[in-house]
Amino acid sequence: MKRREAIKLTALATLGMAVTAQACPSKNSCSTDQITVGQAGIIHPSVNGHWIDFISLYVDKKLVGKTILMAEISRGAAAFRVKLDGASFITANAGCNIHGIWVSTLTL
To answer: Which residue ranges run through the membrane (predicted)?
Structure first.
């Protein structure tokens, strides 16, 4: 399937949040793809009073992962391993305790 090749090094930086998708090198090496939310040089503050408090990932509107982050000890990034075969899009939400929820969608 060409979709697997298309997401190998796809990156999206929207509304201050980066979403990257890294496909497995071949179908035989693993059965999931790694999705990273909150990196690519975008450093959000992580101090008491201002931090990313959660990151959630959806594949075709289905919640597939969520992480809760703590101020001062986390850097506002998370990685998820999910199956993307047959998926149309992924959506990541990141919640800043001051600025609200940021949303990025990547069409596969």
So the answer is: none
